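Researcher: Let's walk through a ligand-bound prediction step by step. First, I give you the protein sequence. Second, the SMILES string for pyridoxal-5'-phosphate. Third, you return the three-dimensional complex as C-alpha coordinates. Ready?
Model: Ready.
Researcher: Here are steps one and two:
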Amino acid sequence: MQPNLSKRLFSSKLNEVCRQTISQIKEAGTYKSERVITSSQSTHITVNGKRVLNFCANNYLGLSDHSRIREAAKRTIDQYGFGMSSVRFICGTQDLHKNLEKRIAAFHKMEDCILYPSAFDANAGFFEAVLTPDDAIISDELNHASIIDGIRLSKAKRLRYKHLDLGDLEKNLKEAEGSRLKLIVTDGVFSMDGDIAPLTDIVKLAKQYGAFTFVDECHATGVIGKTGRGTPEYFGLEGQIDVINSTLGKAMGGGTGGYTAASKEVVDILRNKGRPYLFSNSIAPPVAGASLQAYQMLDENSSLLESLARNTKHFRTEMKKAGFTILGHEECPISPVLLGDARLASEFADEMMKEDIYVIGFSYPVVPTGKARIRVQLSAAHTPEDVQRAVNGFINIGRKKGIIGDAKL
Ligand SMILES: Cc1ncc(COP(=O)(O)O)c(C=O)c1O
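Model: Step three, the predicted complex:
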Protein backbone atom coordinates (compact mmCIF):
# COMPACT_ATOMS: atom_id res chain seq x y z
CA MET A 1 0.00 0.00 0.00
CA GLN A 2 1.26 3.47 -0.78
CA PRO A 3 2.23 5.26 2.45
CA ASN A 4 0.31 8.37 1.43
CA LEU A 5 -2.91 6.45 0.87
CA SER A 6 -2.83 4.71 4.28
CA LYS A 7 -2.17 8.07 5.92
CA ARG A 8 -5.19 9.58 4.16
CA LEU A 9 -7.45 6.67 5.19
CA PHE A 10 -6.38 7.01 8.79
CA SER A 11 -6.84 10.72 8.66
CA SER A 12 -10.35 10.52 7.18
CA LYS A 13 -11.46 8.08 9.92
CA LEU A 14 -9.95 10.40 12.53
CA ASN A 15 -11.80 13.31 10.99
CA GLU A 16 -15.05 11.34 10.89
CA VAL A 17 -14.80 10.50 14.61
CA CYS A 18 -14.08 14.15 15.41
CA ARG A 19 -17.01 15.30 13.26
CA GLN A 20 -19.38 13.00 15.14
CA THR A 21 -18.15 14.28 18.50
CA ILE A 22 -18.39 17.88 17.36
CA SER A 23 -21.97 17.40 16.21
CA GLN A 24 -22.83 15.93 19.63
CA ILE A 25 -21.26 18.98 21.29
CA LYS A 26 -23.27 21.25 18.99
CA GLU A 27 -26.48 19.34 19.74
CA ALA A 28 -25.81 19.79 23.45
CA GLY A 29 -25.46 23.53 22.80
CA THR A 30 -21.97 23.67 24.31
CA TYR A 31 -19.90 24.25 21.15
CA LYS A 32 -17.35 26.99 21.69
CA SER A 33 -16.23 29.50 19.11
CA GLU A 34 -13.82 32.38 19.44
CA ARG A 35 -14.36 36.06 18.88
CA VAL A 36 -11.18 37.46 17.39
CA ILE A 37 -9.77 40.64 18.95
CA THR A 38 -7.67 42.82 16.68
CA SER A 39 -6.55 45.30 19.32
CA SER A 40 -4.66 44.99 22.60
CA GLN A 41 -6.49 43.49 25.60
CA SER A 42 -8.02 46.48 27.33
CA THR A 43 -11.30 48.03 28.47
CA HIS A 44 -12.04 49.03 24.86
CA ILE A 45 -11.23 46.38 22.29
CA THR A 46 -11.86 45.80 18.61
CA VAL A 47 -13.80 42.60 17.93
CA ASN A 48 -14.83 41.64 14.39
CA GLY A 49 -13.99 45.19 13.32
CA LYS A 50 -16.21 46.69 16.01
CA ARG A 51 -15.03 48.81 18.95
CA VAL A 52 -16.65 47.49 22.12
CA LEU A 53 -16.50 48.01 25.85
CA ASN A 54 -14.97 44.92 27.41
CA PHE A 55 -16.38 43.34 30.58
CA CYS A 56 -15.21 39.77 30.19
CA ALA A 57 -11.44 39.70 30.68
CA ASN A 58 -9.62 38.78 33.91
CA ASN A 59 -7.77 42.07 33.47
CA TYR A 60 -8.69 43.12 37.01
CA LEU A 61 -5.98 45.75 37.48
CA GLY A 62 -5.95 46.90 33.87
CA LEU A 63 -2.29 45.87 33.55
CA SER A 64 -2.60 43.77 30.37
CA ASP A 65 -1.99 46.88 28.29
CA HIS A 66 -0.55 49.23 30.91
CA SER A 67 2.31 51.45 29.69
CA ARG A 68 4.63 50.38 32.54
CA ILE A 69 4.06 46.71 31.81
CA ARG A 70 4.62 47.22 28.07
CA GLU A 71 7.84 49.13 28.77
CA ALA A 72 9.09 46.50 31.22
CA ALA A 73 8.49 43.77 28.64
CA LYS A 74 10.35 45.74 25.95
CA ARG A 75 13.28 46.49 28.26
CA THR A 76 13.52 42.86 29.26
CA ILE A 77 13.55 41.70 25.64
CA ASP A 78 16.45 44.08 24.95
CA GLN A 79 18.43 42.77 27.91
CA TYR A 80 17.44 39.10 28.08
CA GLY A 81 16.05 38.22 24.65
CA PHE A 82 12.72 36.70 23.73
CA GLY A 83 12.68 33.03 24.73
CA MET A 84 14.53 30.45 26.82
CA SER A 85 14.27 27.35 24.61
CA SER A 86 14.79 25.18 27.65
CA VAL A 87 13.22 23.81 30.78
CA ARG A 88 14.33 25.49 33.98
CA PHE A 89 16.75 22.90 35.34
CA ILE A 90 18.66 22.37 32.09
CA CYS A 91 19.43 25.89 30.93
CA GLY A 92 16.18 27.80 31.32
CA THR A 93 16.79 29.83 34.48
CA GLN A 94 17.86 33.46 34.36
CA ASP A 95 18.39 35.70 37.39
CA LEU A 96 15.10 37.21 36.22
CA HIS A 97 13.21 33.99 37.04
CA LYS A 98 14.91 33.75 40.44
CA ASN A 99 14.10 37.40 41.22
CA LEU A 100 10.47 36.91 40.26
CA GLU A 101 10.19 33.82 42.47
CA LYS A 102 11.76 35.70 45.38
CA ARG A 103 9.42 38.66 44.89
CA ILE A 104 6.31 36.47 44.71
CA ALA A 105 7.32 34.45 47.81
CA ALA A 106 7.74 37.70 49.75
CA PHE A 107 4.44 39.04 48.36
CA HIS A 108 2.56 36.03 49.74
CA LYS A 109 4.68 35.95 52.91
CA MET A 110 5.94 32.48 52.04
CA GLU A 111 9.46 31.04 52.21
CA ASP A 112 9.82 30.14 48.56
CA CYS A 113 8.11 30.03 45.19
CA ILE A 114 8.38 28.00 41.98
CA LEU A 115 7.25 29.25 38.58
CA TYR A 116 5.41 27.10 36.03
CA PRO A 117 4.37 27.79 32.43
CA SER A 118 0.81 28.29 33.72
CA ALA A 119 -1.28 28.00 36.87
CA PHE A 120 -2.97 25.06 35.19
CA ASP A 121 0.45 23.38 35.28
CA ALA A 122 1.07 24.46 38.89
CA ASN A 123 -2.18 22.72 39.87
CA ALA A 124 -1.65 19.74 37.58
CA GLY A 125 1.84 19.14 38.99
CA PHE A 126 1.37 19.70 42.70
CA PHE A 127 -0.60 16.78 44.10
CA GLU A 128 1.21 13.96 42.32
CA ALA A 129 4.59 15.39 43.30
CA VAL A 130 3.86 15.92 46.98
CA LEU A 131 1.27 13.35 48.05
CA THR A 132 1.24 9.53 48.14
CA PRO A 133 -1.46 6.85 48.63
CA ASP A 134 -0.97 7.34 52.38
CA ASP A 135 -2.38 10.88 52.12
CA ALA A 136 -5.86 12.35 51.61
CA ILE A 137 -7.07 15.32 49.56
CA ILE A 138 -10.34 16.97 50.56
CA SER A 139 -11.46 19.25 47.75
CA ASP A 140 -14.37 21.69 47.23
CA GLU A 141 -16.62 20.23 44.52
CA LEU A 142 -16.48 23.44 42.46
CA ASN A 143 -12.69 23.81 42.40
CA HIS A 144 -11.11 24.73 39.07
CA ALA A 145 -10.69 22.07 36.38
CA SER A 146 -6.89 22.15 36.75
CA ILE A 147 -7.19 21.20 40.43
CA ILE A 148 -9.54 18.37 39.52
CA ASP A 149 -7.08 17.13 36.88
CA GLY A 150 -4.13 17.50 39.26
CA ILE A 151 -5.92 15.49 41.94
CA ARG A 152 -6.76 12.79 39.37
CA LEU A 153 -3.06 12.41 38.63
CA SER A 154 -2.17 11.79 42.28
CA LYS A 155 -2.54 8.48 44.10
CA ALA A 156 -3.77 10.07 47.32
CA LYS A 157 -7.23 9.26 48.70
CA ARG A 158 -9.70 11.69 47.07
CA LEU A 159 -12.58 13.20 48.97
CA ARG A 160 -14.92 15.93 47.80
CA TYR A 161 -16.99 18.28 49.94
CA LYS A 162 -20.08 20.24 48.92
CA HIS A 163 -19.31 23.77 47.72
CA LEU A 164 -18.41 26.00 50.70
CA ASP A 165 -20.14 23.52 53.04
CA LEU A 166 -18.15 23.43 56.28
CA GLY A 167 -20.29 20.64 57.76
CA ASP A 168 -19.53 18.44 54.79
CA LEU A 169 -15.85 19.42 54.93
CA GLU A 170 -15.72 18.31 58.56
CA LYS A 171 -17.46 15.02 57.70
CA ASN A 172 -14.77 14.38 55.09
CA LEU A 173 -11.98 15.34 57.47
CA LYS A 174 -13.28 12.66 59.82
CA GLU A 175 -13.34 10.18 56.94
CA ALA A 176 -9.70 11.04 56.22
CA GLU A 177 -8.65 10.17 59.78
CA GLY A 178 -5.60 7.93 59.75
CA SER A 179 -4.11 9.42 56.59
CA ARG A 180 -0.47 10.54 56.84
CA LEU A 181 -1.26 14.02 55.46
CA LYS A 182 -4.70 15.56 55.04
CA LEU A 183 -4.87 18.46 52.56
CA ILE A 184 -7.90 20.74 52.24
CA VAL A 185 -8.01 22.22 48.75
CA THR A 186 -10.09 25.22 47.70
CA ASP A 187 -10.22 28.07 45.24
CA GLY A 188 -9.87 31.37 47.13
CA VAL A 189 -12.34 33.03 44.73
CA PHE A 190 -14.61 30.86 42.57
CA SER A 191 -14.66 32.24 39.06
CA MET A 192 -18.19 31.26 38.00
CA ASP A 193 -20.00 32.54 41.09
CA GLY A 194 -17.70 35.28 42.36
CA ASP A 195 -17.88 33.82 45.85
CA ILE A 196 -15.04 33.61 48.36
CA ALA A 197 -14.05 30.50 50.32
CA PRO A 198 -14.72 30.82 54.09
CA LEU A 199 -11.02 30.60 54.91
CA THR A 200 -11.28 31.49 58.59
CA ASP A 201 -13.45 28.45 59.28
CA ILE A 202 -11.49 26.26 56.88
CA VAL A 203 -8.23 27.08 58.70
CA LYS A 204 -9.94 26.47 62.05
CA LEU A 205 -11.09 23.01 60.89
CA ALA A 206 -7.64 22.31 59.42
CA LYS A 207 -6.06 23.01 62.82
CA GLN A 208 -8.67 20.96 64.66
CA TYR A 209 -8.14 17.92 62.43
CA GLY A 210 -4.38 18.30 61.84
CA ALA A 211 -4.89 19.07 58.15
CA PHE A 212 -3.03 21.40 55.76
CA THR A 213 -4.48 24.02 53.43
CA PHE A 214 -4.01 24.66 49.71
CA VAL A 215 -5.67 27.73 48.17
CA ASP A 216 -5.86 28.55 44.45
CA GLU A 217 -5.62 32.34 44.32
CA CYS A 218 -5.85 32.86 40.55
CA HIS A 219 -8.86 35.20 40.84
CA ALA A 220 -7.72 36.70 44.15
CA THR A 221 -4.08 37.70 43.68
CA GLY A 222 -4.02 41.41 42.87
CA VAL A 223 -7.79 41.52 43.39
CA ILE A 224 -8.82 40.73 46.96
CA GLY A 225 -7.39 42.12 50.20
CA LYS A 226 -6.29 45.63 51.06
CA THR A 227 -2.97 45.30 49.21
CA GLY A 228 -4.06 42.63 46.72
CA ARG A 229 -2.49 39.73 48.59
CA GLY A 230 -5.63 37.71 48.13
CA THR A 231 -8.01 35.84 50.39
CA PRO A 232 -5.47 35.14 53.20
CA GLU A 233 -4.98 38.91 53.52
CA TYR A 234 -8.73 39.54 53.33
CA PHE A 235 -9.33 37.16 56.28
CA GLY A 236 -6.21 38.19 58.23
CA LEU A 237 -4.67 34.75 57.66
CA GLU A 238 -1.41 35.61 55.93
CA GLY A 239 1.25 33.07 56.81
CA GLN A 240 -1.41 30.56 57.91
CA ILE A 241 -2.09 28.94 54.54
CA ASP A 242 0.34 26.15 53.67
CA VAL A 243 0.25 26.32 49.87
CA ILE A 244 -0.80 29.14 47.53
CA ASN A 245 -1.08 28.51 43.80
CA SER A 246 -1.73 31.47 41.55
CA THR A 247 -1.32 32.90 38.06
CA LEU A 248 0.54 35.63 36.22
CA GLY A 249 -2.14 35.39 33.55
CA LYS A 250 -4.92 37.45 35.09
CA ALA A 251 -4.55 40.54 37.34
CA MET A 252 -0.75 40.54 37.42
CA GLY A 253 -0.19 41.69 33.85
CA GLY A 254 -2.17 38.94 32.16
CA GLY A 255 0.82 37.34 30.45
CA THR A 256 1.38 33.64 31.02
CA GLY A 257 2.72 31.64 33.90
CA GLY A 258 1.70 30.31 37.27
CA TYR A 259 3.35 29.39 40.52
CA THR A 260 3.29 27.63 43.85
CA ALA A 261 4.29 29.65 46.91
CA ALA A 262 4.94 27.55 50.00
CA SER A 263 7.64 26.41 52.43
CA LYS A 264 11.20 25.76 51.26
CA GLU A 265 10.67 22.02 51.63
CA VAL A 266 7.47 21.91 49.53
CA VAL A 267 9.05 24.03 46.78
CA ASP A 268 12.16 21.85 46.84
CA ILE A 269 10.04 18.75 46.24
CA LEU A 270 8.28 20.50 43.35
CA ARG A 271 11.60 21.49 41.75
CA ASN A 272 12.57 17.83 41.86
CA LYS A 273 9.27 16.12 41.11
CA GLY A 274 6.84 18.66 39.60
CA ARG A 275 6.42 17.28 36.09
CA PRO A 276 5.17 20.48 34.34
CA TYR A 277 8.24 22.20 35.83
CA LEU A 278 10.65 19.45 34.80
CA PHE A 279 9.26 18.84 31.33
CA SER A 280 8.02 22.18 29.99
CA ASN A 281 9.69 25.38 28.83
CA SER A 282 10.49 28.33 31.12
CA ILE A 283 8.24 31.36 31.01
CA ALA A 284 9.59 33.83 28.43
CA PRO A 285 11.93 36.58 29.74
CA PRO A 286 9.65 39.50 28.74
CA VAL A 287 6.79 37.85 30.64
CA ALA A 288 9.00 37.43 33.72
CA GLY A 289 10.24 41.03 33.47
CA ALA A 290 6.77 42.49 33.01
CA SER A 291 5.34 40.32 35.80
CA LEU A 292 8.05 41.59 38.16
CA GLN A 293 6.91 45.09 37.30
CA ALA A 294 3.27 44.17 38.09
CA TYR A 295 4.20 42.97 41.62
CA GLN A 296 6.29 46.10 42.10
CA MET A 297 3.36 48.32 41.08
CA LEU A 298 1.09 46.61 43.58
CA ASP A 299 3.70 47.09 46.33
CA GLU A 300 4.08 50.81 45.51
CA ASN A 301 0.50 51.81 46.24
CA SER A 302 -3.08 50.60 46.25
CA SER A 303 -4.54 53.06 43.73
CA LEU A 304 -5.40 50.35 41.19
CA LEU A 305 -7.07 48.25 43.88
CA GLU A 306 -9.07 51.27 44.98
CA SER A 307 -10.31 51.88 41.41
CA LEU A 308 -11.24 48.23 41.10
CA ALA A 309 -13.16 48.34 44.41
CA ARG A 310 -14.94 51.57 43.33
CA ASN A 311 -16.02 50.01 40.01
CA THR A 312 -17.14 46.78 41.66
CA LYS A 313 -19.27 48.65 44.18
CA HIS A 314 -20.72 50.92 41.48
CA PHE A 315 -21.77 48.03 39.23
CA ARG A 316 -23.13 45.78 41.96
CA THR A 317 -25.07 48.60 43.69
CA GLU A 318 -26.66 50.02 40.54
CA MET A 319 -27.56 46.62 39.13
CA LYS A 320 -29.22 45.52 42.36
CA LYS A 321 -31.07 48.84 42.53
CA ALA A 322 -32.37 48.17 39.02
CA GLY A 323 -33.75 44.81 40.15
CA PHE A 324 -31.14 42.35 38.90
CA THR A 325 -29.84 39.46 40.99
CA ILE A 326 -26.06 39.64 41.27
CA LEU A 327 -24.31 36.56 42.60
CA GLY A 328 -21.14 36.33 44.63
CA HIS A 329 -19.32 38.30 47.27
CA GLU A 330 -20.02 42.04 47.35
CA GLU A 331 -16.30 42.86 47.11
CA CYS A 332 -15.62 40.51 44.23
CA PRO A 333 -15.21 42.09 40.77
CA ILE A 334 -16.60 38.89 39.24
CA SER A 335 -20.26 39.94 39.19
CA PRO A 336 -22.51 37.26 37.67
CA VAL A 337 -25.92 38.60 36.61
CA LEU A 338 -28.32 35.70 37.23
CA LEU A 339 -30.85 35.20 34.41
CA GLY A 340 -31.75 31.52 34.88
CA ASP A 341 -32.66 30.44 31.36
CA ALA A 342 -29.78 29.43 29.06
CA ARG A 343 -31.29 30.85 25.87
CA LEU A 344 -32.13 34.10 27.62
CA ALA A 345 -28.54 34.46 28.85
CA SER A 346 -27.14 33.86 25.39
CA GLU A 347 -29.63 36.23 23.68
CA PHE A 348 -29.03 38.86 26.36
CA ALA A 349 -25.28 38.75 25.74
CA ASP A 350 -25.90 39.10 21.97
CA GLU A 351 -28.13 42.13 22.58
CA MET A 352 -25.45 43.69 24.79
CA MET A 353 -22.96 43.19 21.97
CA LYS A 354 -25.32 45.15 19.68
CA GLU A 355 -24.97 47.98 22.20
CA ASP A 356 -21.17 47.61 21.89
CA ILE A 357 -20.80 46.03 25.33
CA TYR A 358 -18.93 42.74 25.37
CA VAL A 359 -20.16 40.31 28.03
CA ILE A 360 -20.51 36.53 27.93
CA GLY A 361 -23.39 34.25 28.93
CA PHE A 362 -22.66 31.02 30.79
CA SER A 363 -25.04 28.11 30.96
CA TYR A 364 -25.06 24.36 31.66
CA PRO A 365 -22.70 22.46 31.91
CA VAL A 366 -20.40 25.31 32.98
CA VAL A 367 -22.96 26.31 35.63
CA PRO A 368 -25.95 24.29 36.99
CA THR A 369 -29.13 24.00 34.88
CA GLY A 370 -31.49 26.90 35.51
CA LYS A 371 -28.66 29.10 36.79
CA ALA A 372 -27.57 30.62 33.47
CA ARG A 373 -25.96 33.99 33.86
CA ILE A 374 -23.94 36.74 32.30
CA ARG A 375 -20.59 37.06 34.03
CA VAL A 376 -19.43 40.66 34.24
CA GLN A 377 -15.84 41.34 35.26
CA LEU A 378 -14.81 44.77 36.39
CA SER A 379 -11.38 46.26 35.92
CA ALA A 380 -9.48 49.08 37.60
CA ALA A 381 -9.08 50.55 34.12
CA HIS A 382 -12.83 51.03 33.58
CA THR A 383 -13.96 54.61 34.10
CA PRO A 384 -17.15 55.30 36.10
CA GLU A 385 -18.73 56.21 32.72
CA ASP A 386 -17.78 52.80 31.31
CA VAL A 387 -19.40 51.06 34.27
CA GLN A 388 -22.55 53.17 33.99
CA ARG A 389 -22.78 52.39 30.27
CA ALA A 390 -22.78 48.68 31.08
CA VAL A 391 -25.45 49.19 33.77
CA ASN A 392 -27.58 51.20 31.31
CA GLY A 393 -27.19 48.47 28.70
CA PHE A 394 -28.42 45.84 31.16
CA ILE A 395 -31.36 48.04 32.17
CA ASN A 396 -32.43 48.73 28.55
CA ILE A 397 -32.30 45.09 27.52
CA GLY A 398 -33.64 43.86 30.87
CA ARG A 399 -36.72 46.08 30.40
CA LYS A 400 -37.18 45.00 26.79
CA LYS A 401 -37.11 41.37 27.83
CA GLY A 402 -39.37 41.97 30.83
CA ILE A 403 -36.75 40.83 33.36
CA ILE A 404 -36.92 44.03 35.32
CA GLY A 405 -39.81 46.42 35.55
CA ASP A 406 -39.80 50.22 35.50
CA ALA A 407 -41.05 50.26 39.09
CA LYS A 408 -37.72 49.07 40.39
CA LEU A 409 -35.77 51.84 38.65
C1 LIG B 1 -9.14 29.13 39.64
C2 LIG B 1 -8.20 28.95 38.49
N1 LIG B 1 -7.10 28.18 38.65
C3 LIG B 1 -6.22 27.99 37.65
C4 LIG B 1 -6.39 28.58 36.41
C5 LIG B 1 -5.38 28.38 35.33
O1 LIG B 1 -4.64 29.55 35.16
P1 LIG B 1 -3.63 29.72 33.94
O2 LIG B 1 -4.38 30.47 32.90
O3 LIG B 1 -2.45 30.45 34.48
O4 LIG B 1 -3.28 28.34 33.49
C6 LIG B 1 -7.52 29.39 36.19
C7 LIG B 1 -7.74 29.99 34.87
O5 LIG B 1 -8.78 30.09 34.35
C8 LIG B 1 -8.43 29.57 37.25
O6 LIG B 1 -9.52 30.33 37.08
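Researcher: And what stands out?
Model: The two ends are 74 Å apart (CA to CA). The chain has two domains: 30-59+302-408, 67-300.
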